[in-house]
Structure formats: structure tokens, C-alpha cells
Amino acid sequence: MMTQALTNLTIQSVDTRGPLYERGWEFYSVDLNSGVGGKYIYVGFQKDDQTSTPITSVTFKAYDTKQDNSMPGWEWSPDDLNAGAGGKYIYMYWKKGEPNKQPVTSLMFMVLEESTPPTMGGWEVIHQDLNEGSGGPYIWPYYSNEFSGNQLKLKVNKNKPA
């Protein structure tokens, strides 16, 4: 079976532990404010339905001030990944359908005490601590062009009482 590519990304920034159900989206279970308080922040994704353009690049960038626009040529979420936790303003960016680039099939977020992200076979590290400036553990993002990451995501059950 062909590993499906990611075709869309979103950020869910909520006041309670989630991720919360959103129709048409699945979410990674790691809170991107782990260990530092603030909002509960989750990355959501949609997978290839064979008609959507696949995501081919993902990155995260930290700034000293709030950003109102994406980087040129990139799609983004205007949600600050450090919302409510202090520290840098951190945003997620992605590109779709770049020629000669493999589709991104999964993301992974490792919450660690190490200031250097570990090497993981089949995963490429994105060198941006998602907790930068807010204290707490390091959160290292990774992407893969090989793995679907099904074992690393949480299915949200919309029927479960809160």
C-alpha cells in the first residue's frame, strides 16, 4: 500500500487538554506547549485523497514578535505555537507540490530534555525547539517521507464524554 501524503495542516489551540474533534481532521497527540503551561496546542492534518496536492516541505520558525503574514512562498498557520507560555512566537509553515521533492507522509514531535535532537531512522529533524524561550523541555519536530506515523497519532473519539 502506498503511504499517503499529508495534504493539509492546521493548528488547534484550546484551553483544555485535547486534541478536540474537528470534522475531517486527525491530530497528533503531543501538546506543543508540553511542560510550559499556556494553551494546549496540537497539529492537525489531512491525508491524500489522490486529488489534493501533497505537502512537500514543513518548517517551524521562531520570532521575537507576532507575525501577521507568512514567509513568501509558504502556507502557514497564524497560530503561535507558544501561545500563553511566554517565550518566542513560533509558527508552522508548509509548501505543496514542489517539483522533485518527496511528499511528506508524517510529522512527529519529541518532548525531550536534550538540547540536541536525536537522529531517528526514516525521520528528518527540523532544527527548531517548539518551546524556545519558554523554559520546560525541548520539543523537536520531525518529518518523514517514508512513514505514515499511524502509531504516533491519536484518534479522537467524538462520542466520548469530555
Describe the structure in your own words.
The protein has 162 residues and is mainly β. The chain is built from no helices and ten strands. The radius of gyration is 15 Å and the shape is globular. The relative contact order is 0.25. The C terminus is likely disordered.
Q: Features of this protein?
A:
0% helix; mainly beta; 10 strands; globular
Portion in strands: 35-45%
Helicity, as a percent range: under 10%
Which parts are unreliable, with pLDDT below 50 for 5 consecutive residues or more?
150-162
State the end-to-end distance: 35 Å
Specify the biggest β-sheet: 4 strands, antiparallel
Report the total helices.
0
Give the helix/strand class.
mainly beta
List the topology elements.
Layout: E1 6-14, E2 26-28, E3 40-47, E4 55-63, E5 75-77, E6 89-96, E7 106-112, E8 124-125, E9 138-144, E10 153-154
Antiparallel strand pairs: 1-3, 2-3, 2-10, 4-6, 5-6, 7-9, 8-9
Brief characterization of the structure:
This protein has 162 residues and is mainly beta.
